[in-house]
């Protein structure tokens, strides 16, 4: 099998040196070239085009986002953004995804060399995943790419669009979600869910919930409408995002590298809900280990959504909700037994 040929574009000599050395040791990966800025990179690419680009954002002569857009227009190529500016939920991260990046690795501002060595597996994993991506030229009149979530102008159609509830959970979440969904009436807002679960498990999980709940529960498919009384669960092994067409919400299901070590990632879903639904949404972060979803919930709150976290006493693992509370992402913490009632109460509200 041919190796994945990678070009590193970064103005930091340390990044180029350490990352090139690390990738050179990875089986199946070859460093095709390095460049200190996009213009040097383009000269080299025109002679020998790489399979994957690892691209910084802050660089001389041309920033990485502008270069990304240029490359995607010229010859769509898998790009992994590696930058200090692309923390989860930031405008730069979202702009990079919208422009066609298939992966994001966030660099710290300090301790760069050690970070690259410590995070070698994550970077290599992102490159391998990017190499498998089928990248297309950003469409003009066609439908947007799955990760290119359209912006919602402040105040646009806020009174006419339907409400959306987004739930995220991990360890202990299967039982917690069942408790919440079984307590919901058939008439409730459309719900989108990310539960950390391996591939092929989510379909059976959704089927079982569908058999015991008044609401319709199903594993999400590309383009599924988010409708009142319907619960869409992200497929194991794939990211799910909310998108909007006029006053209608739907979901996109896509491959891509793990985010916060998870695919599906709660953060990926909640960030898309923040951008597409804004104040028309309710976000709830439930029991789980780690911090996936905390920054996405913060993005939802900053967009005007109602945000809640499951309280410590009712969590199997008080990890994800705790991180959300620490960030100020959750307006309130509530027990598991109260979440369904909050969803029903939210459904009856006339506005944020």
TrEMBL record:
The modification 4-aspartylphosphate is found at residue 56. Phosphorylated by CheA. Phosphorylation of the N-terminal regulatory domain activates the methylesterase activity. It catalyses: [protein]-L-glutamate 5-O-methyl ester + H2O = L-glutamyl-[protein] + methanol + H(+); L-glutaminyl-[protein] + H2O = L-glutamyl-[protein] + NH4(+). Residues 5-122 form the Response regulatory domain. It is found in: Cytoplasm. The active site is at 170, 196, 292. InterPro entries: CheB-like (IPR008248), CheB_C (IPR035909), CheY-like_superfamily (IPR011006), Sig_transdc_resp-reg_Me-estase (IPR000673), Sig_transdc_resp-reg_receiver (IPR001789). Its main location: cytoplasm. Residues 158-350 form the CheB-type methylesterase domain. Keywords: Chemotaxis, Cytoplasm, Hydrolase, Phosphoprotein. Belongs to the CheB family. Involved in chemotaxis. Part of a chemotaxis signal transduction system that modulates chemotaxis in response to various stimuli. Catalyzes the demethylation of specific methylglutamate residues introduced into the chemoreceptors (methyl-accepting chemotaxis proteins or MCP) by CheR. Also mediates the irreversible deamidation of specific glutamine residues to glutamic acid. This is Protein-glutamate methylesterase/protein-glutamine glutaminase. The gene is cheB.
């Amino acid at each position: 099998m041919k190796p994945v040929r990678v070009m590193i574009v970064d103005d930091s000599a340390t990044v180029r040196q350490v990352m090139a050395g690390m990738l050179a040791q990875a089986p199946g990966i070859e460093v095709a070239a390095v460049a200190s800025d996009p213009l040097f990179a383009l000269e080299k690419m025109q002679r020998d085009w790489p399979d994957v680009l690892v691209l910084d954002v802050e660089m001389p002569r041309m920033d990485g986002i502008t270069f990304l857009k240029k490359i995607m227009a010229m010859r769509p190529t898998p790009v992994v953004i590696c930058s200090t500016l692309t923390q989860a939920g930031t405008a730069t991260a979202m702009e990079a995804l919208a422009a066609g990046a298939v992966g994001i690795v966030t660099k710290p501002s300090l301790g760069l060399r050690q970070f690259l060595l410590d995070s070698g597996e994550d970077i290599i994993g992102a490159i391998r995943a990017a190499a498998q991506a089928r990248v297309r030229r950003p469409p003009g009149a066609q439908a947007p790419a799955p990760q290119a979530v359209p912006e919602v102008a402040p105040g646009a159609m806020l009174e006419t669009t339907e409400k959306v509830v987004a739930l995220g959970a991990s360890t202990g979440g299967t039982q917690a979600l069942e408790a919440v969904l079984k307590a919901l009436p058939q008439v409730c807002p459309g719900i989108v869910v990310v539960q950390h679960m391996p591939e092929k498990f989510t379909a059976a999980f959704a089927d079982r919930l569908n058999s015991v709940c008044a609401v319709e529960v199903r594993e999400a498919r590309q383009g599924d409408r988010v409708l009142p009384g319907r619960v869409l669960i992200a497929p194991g092994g794939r990211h799910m995002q909310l998108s909007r067409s006029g006053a209608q919400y739907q979901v996109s299901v896509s491959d891509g590298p793990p985010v916060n070590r998870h695919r599906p990632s709660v953060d990926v879903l909640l960030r898309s809900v923040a951008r597409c639904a804004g104040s028309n949404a309710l976000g709830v972060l439930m029991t789980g280990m780690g911090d996936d979803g905390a920054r996405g919930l913060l993005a939802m709150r900053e967009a005007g959504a109602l945000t809640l976290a499951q309280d410590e006493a009712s969590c199997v693992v008080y990890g994800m909700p705790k991180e959300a509370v620490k960030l100020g992402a959750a307006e309130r913490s509530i027990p598991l037994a109260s979440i369904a009632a909050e969803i029903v109460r939210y459904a009856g509200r006339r506005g944020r």
